[in-house]
């Protein structure tokens, strides 16, 4: 029923050393080569894992992404990693706009706009995250918050650039809290997001845009979420750290 690309993407965050990360990537790769997924699968890893994980993945089955990139092209920015550097590892995607980056590292809409531009310019596809806090939802401001995040960082893109954007709606109150948005709440927001993408880029582009849900997604709740008409998959934090859990979510597309 949904013709657009379906995706399950993992976001490992700051959890594993190099050896453990490479071992997990190998396990996911072997598991999915033995039992082919019905969706696109991406694992997004810390910078230090990228080059080594790229060597153990068959990216026709499991694509590789980073969790961030710099808002500057190159030069004297100690400790930063540019989009071009990410791309050179073999990675194809980058997560930008994650709420943890916005909250703890003060990434503003303006900074994210620069990061998105640099990622696209260097041939990376962007998984762009948006989502409201609990306080904003309780004030019924979730739609305006999400719209402002998209307006501020990605709705400036050309129609051609837009083809390289995947959106992820992640209500902050559902991330790592064990509290999932209900499938109806997630669907309501994703349908709204698709409608504002249609306002900006037209209905056809909106119908082709992959929009993910993220926030305490697990094997147990993925089937109900993915059954909704506008939910094209998930961005997975905690449950992407165990091959069996991650596979369980991927299998929700079967
Ligand atoms: C995330 O941070 O992208 C996320 C969805 O985390 P979790 O699945 O752990 O809630």
UniProtKB/TrEMBL annotation:
Family of the protein in this entry: Belongs to the triosephosphate isomerase family.
Subunit (UniProt): Homodimer.
Record's function text: Involved in the gluconeogenesis. Catalyzes stereospecifically the conversion of dihydroxyacetone phosphate (DHAP) to D-glyceraldehyde-3-phosphate (G3P).
Organism expressing this protein natively: Prevotella lacticifex
Highest taxon, organism lineage: Bacteria
Protein name: Triosephosphate isomerase
Residues reported to bind substrate: 11-13, 176, 216, 237-238
Active-site residues, as the UniProt record annotates them: 98, 170
Location in or out of the cell: Cytoplasm; Membrane
């Amino acid at each position: 029923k949904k013709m657009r690309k379906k995706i399950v993407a993992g976001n490992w965050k700051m959890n594993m050393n190099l050896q453990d990360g490479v071992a997990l990537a190998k396990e996911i790769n072997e598991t999915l080569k033995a039992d082919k997924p019905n969706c696109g699968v991406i694992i997004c890893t810390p910078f230090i894992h990228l080059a080594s994980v790229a060597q153990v993945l068959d990216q026709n089955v499991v694509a590789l992404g980073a969790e961030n990139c710099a808002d500057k092209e190159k030069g004297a920015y100690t400790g930063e990693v540019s989009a071009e550097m990410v791309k050179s590892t073999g990675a194809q995607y980058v997560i930008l706009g994650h709420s943890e980056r916005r909250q703890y590292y003060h990434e503003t809409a303006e900074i994210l706009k620069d990061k998105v531009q640099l990622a696209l310019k260097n041939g990376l596809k962007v998984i762009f995250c948006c989502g409201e806090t609990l306080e904003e939802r309780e004030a019924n401001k979730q739609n305006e918050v999400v719209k402002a995040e998209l307006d501020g960082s990605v709705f400036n893109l050309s129609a051609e650039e837009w083809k390289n954007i995947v959106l992820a709606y992640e209500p902050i109150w559902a991330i790592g809290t064990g509290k999932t948005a209900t499938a109806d709440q997630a669907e309501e927001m994703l349908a709204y997001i698709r409608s504002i993408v249609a306002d900006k880029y037209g209905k056809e582009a909106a119908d082709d845009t992959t929009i993910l849900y993220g926030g305490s997604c697990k094997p147990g709740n993925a089937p109900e979420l993915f059954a909704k008409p506008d939910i094209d998959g998930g961005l997975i934090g905690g449950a992407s750290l165990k091959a069996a859990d991650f596979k369980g979510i991927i299998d929700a597309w079967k």
